[in-house]
Amino acid sequence: MDKYLKTIEKTESEEDSKIVNVQTRNILNKINAFIFIFDVGNLKPLWINKYFYTKMGYTNKDLRTLTKEDFLALFHPKSMPVFLNRIKYLLKNTKDDVKTVYQLKTKNNDWIYMLTSSRIFKRNEDGSIKYLIGYASEVNPTELKHHLKEMTRLKQKCDTLSLINNLSRREFDIIRLISHGFTDKEISSRLNISIHTTKTHRKRIIQKLVVRNTAELVKFAVENEIC
Q: 54 and 125 in one domain?
């Protein structure tokens, strides 16, 4: 199985990088929960993490070739209208985050229950939703309380990853150097940029990650394994 997964990852990494950057993808693939990026306009998933295709049997390549009809057919007949109404709701209530239970069909034609939620991952230039990031856990309907706590944890993780995915490659380089204790002068020398540019990058990174200062930035980098 490990060899199979590595083959999939190698084949699909180039396509994946167009949706999520390498750092974000690596973090998502370490999470033991169903994670997926969803294209709202085309009504189809664009990317799933390793846990998803291990449990469900589908690969990223499988999902890219699905038509809208094929994708909706993965939902149990009782879950399909719930899902469509959920998408309509999100388009009107972009700040809300409602948890929903769906029945989905695996590649082996088994049905599983998923407690699912989603957040805005990327927007179009006009401000409309482009991609959603969805996260889910398999549930036994009688154990929802426990899974609701797990969903809260996943929500926080996915919100954080949305911030990380907005960082540029240069910003990742600077975060790593800051985390290792380099001063602005040392960073500017290593990256062959001016001190002013280094300071500007530092301020912009702090704004993007919604942290208050350099100490919180380093803590964020350590906790999310980006240093």
A: yes
Q: Are strands 44-48 and 129-138 parallel, antiparallel or unpaired?
A: unpaired
For the chain, the C-alpha Rg in angstroms (whole number) is: 19
Question: What residues make up the domain containing 205?
Answer: 169-223
Domain count of the fold of the chain:
2
Residues 37 and 149 in one domain: yes
Under 8 Å between Cβ of 60 and 53: yes
What is the C-alpha to C-alpha distance for residues 85 and 64, in angstroms, rounded to an integer?
23
Looking only at the bridges linking them, the beta strands covering 111-123 and 100-105 are antiparallel
Residues 191 and 155 in one domain: no
Query: What is the predicted pLDDT for the residue at 16?
Result: 56
- Write the secondary structure of the chain as one string of H (helix), E (strand) and C (coil): CHHHHHHHHHHHHHHHCCCCCHHHHHHHCCCCCEEEEEECCCCEEEEECHHHHHHHCCCHHHHHCCCHHHHHCCECCCCHHHHHHHHHHHHHCCCCCCCEEEEEECCCCCEEEEEEEEEEEEECCCCCEEEEEEEEEECCHHHHHHHHHHHHHHHHHHHHHHHHCCCCHHHHHHHHHHHCCCCHHHHHHHHCCCHHHHHHHHHHHHHHCCCCCHHHHHHHHHHCCCC
pLDDT at 51: 92
Instruction: Quickly tell me which residue has 């469509």 as its tokens.
Output: 84
Which one-letter amino acid corresponds to residue 17?
S
Low-confidence ranges of the chain (pLDDT < 50): 1-12
What pLDDT score was predicted for residue 204? 95
